[in-house]
Amino acid sequence: LIFLSFFRKKLKSEYSDHINAPLVIKFILLNKGMKIMKLVAVVACTSGIAHTYIAKEKLIKAAEKRGHSIKVETQGTIGTEGKLDKHDIEEADLVIMATDIQTTGNERFDNKKKIKVATSIAVKASEQLIEKIEKEIAS
Question: Of 1, 3, 100, 135, which sits 20 to 30 A from 11 (CA to CA)?
Answer without folding.
Answer: 135
